[in-house]
């Protein structure tokens, strides 16, 4: 079992490396194509191989850009099979964190919650892989307040690290509606950049494909790189009006890192993206949207 897992991991890393090489070569050819179309000078670093790149442009098929990448391999069964989500906490959780984990279990259809106990991260990931779990969610706290969420996609990654803020649990929301177990419709707003689409895929593939008559709606709305989570059910009062009822919980997510690996490979996995709040000179720059 360990040999097979190591072999699959090596094959995945090899496919990812090949994809990166193809993407770099395609970017160089695109620069030459744009220079020729706009009648500009070819960039200095490409002048020696410009003729070879121009010759290879004749064999490129239009409309096939970005069809194959390692993200397709990570989520190749998305939409075909329902995701299997496992939710757990950090060690020695408080009663409030346990309650928040139970409420997260109601958010994801078919999710299971596991008591952390003294299990190590490696043992958790191995157990999830052996039982066909597609995503492992780990919630962290600080003095009883949930402050962190880790979403690790199995078996090869990626792993996204989020900061939690402004958490309001179900029992703190007035006029609370009944939690539905239907598969929800998703509203993803404000994820227009390349990184935003990556984060959108990580979040939306936690949910199965809903039925058309589902009356449950979950919203991930990005504004200034803070992702607001809202959970509602709706009913039609007449042919024109719809009444929304919030179900909860509600919270904000702030992405600070994506690793190309699973949770137990934290020391060895490559970092795909990391937020550097103290090294960016443009403090008002946003990453999840192209606006």
UniProtKB/TrEMBL annotation:
Keyword hit for rRNA processing: yes
Domain of life: Eukaryota
Keyword terms of this UniProt record: Ribonucleoprotein, Ribosome biogenesis, rRNA processing
GO terms classed as biological process: ribosomal small subunit biogenesis; rRNA processing
Signal sequence annotation: none
Transmembrane segments: none
Keyword rRNA processing: yes
An example molecular function term from Gene Ontology annotations: rRNA primary transcript binding
One Pfam assignment: Brix
Localization terms from the record: Nucleus, Nucleolus
Annotated function: Component of the 60-80S U3 small nucleolar ribonucleoprotein (U3 snoRNP). Required for the early cleavages during pre-18S ribosomal RNA processing. Part of the small subunit (SSU) processome, first precursor of the small eukaryotic ribosomal subunit. During the assembly of the SSU processome in the nucleolus, many ribosome biogenesis factors, an RNA chaperone and ribosomal proteins associate with the nascent pre-rRNA and work in concert to generate RNA folding, modifications, rearrangements and cleavage as well as targeted degradation of pre-ribosomal RNA by the RNA exosome.
Matching PANTHER family: U3 SMALL NUCLEOLAR RIBONUCLEOPROTEIN PROTEIN IMP4
Subunit structure: Part of the small subunit (SSU) processome, composed of more than 70 proteins and the RNA chaperone small nucleolar RNA (snoRNA) U3. Component of a heterotrimeric complex containing IMP3, IMP4 and MPHOSPH10. Interacts with MPHOSPH10.
This protein's name: IMP U3 small nucleolar ribonucleoprotein 4
Organism: Balaenoptera musculus
Gene it is expressed from: IMP4
């Amino acid at each position: 079992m360990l040999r097979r897992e190591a072999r699959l991991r090596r094959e995945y890393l090899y496919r990812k490396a090949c994809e990166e090489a193809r993407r770099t070569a395609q970017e160089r050819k695109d620069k030459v194509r744009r220079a020729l179309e706009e009648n500009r000078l070819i960039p200095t670093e490409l002048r020696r191989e410009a003729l070879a790149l121009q010759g290879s442009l004749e064999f490129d098929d239009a409309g096939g850009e970005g069809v194959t990448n390692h993200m397709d391999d990570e989520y190749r069964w998305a939409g075909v099979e329902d995701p299997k989500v496992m939710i757990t906490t950090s060690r020695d959780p408080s009663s409030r964190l346990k309650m928040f984990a139970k409420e997260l279990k109601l958010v994801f259809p078919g999710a299971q919650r596991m008591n952390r106990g003294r299990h190590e991260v490696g043992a958790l990931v191995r157990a999830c892989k052996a039982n066909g779990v597609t995503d492992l969610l780990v919630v962290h706290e600080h003095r009883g307040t949930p402050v962190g969420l880790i979403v690790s996609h199995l078996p090869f990654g990626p792993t996204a690290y989020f900061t939690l803020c402004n958490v309001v649990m179900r029992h703190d929301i007035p006029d609370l509606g009944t939690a539905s177990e239907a598969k929800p419709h998703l509203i993803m707003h404000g994820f227009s950049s390349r990184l935003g689409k990556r984060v959108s895929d990580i979040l939306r593939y936690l949910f199965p494909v809903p039925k058309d008559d589902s009356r449950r709606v979950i919203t991930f709305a990005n504004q200034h790189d803070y992702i607001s989570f809202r959970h509602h059910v709706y009913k039609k009062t007449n042919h024109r009006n719809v009444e929304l009822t919030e179900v909860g919980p509600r919270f904000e997510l702030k992405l600070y890192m994506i690793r190309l690996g699973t949770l137990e490979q934290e020391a060895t996995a490559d970092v795909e993206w990391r937020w550097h709040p103290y090294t960016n000179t443009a403090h008002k720059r946003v990453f999840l949207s192209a606006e």
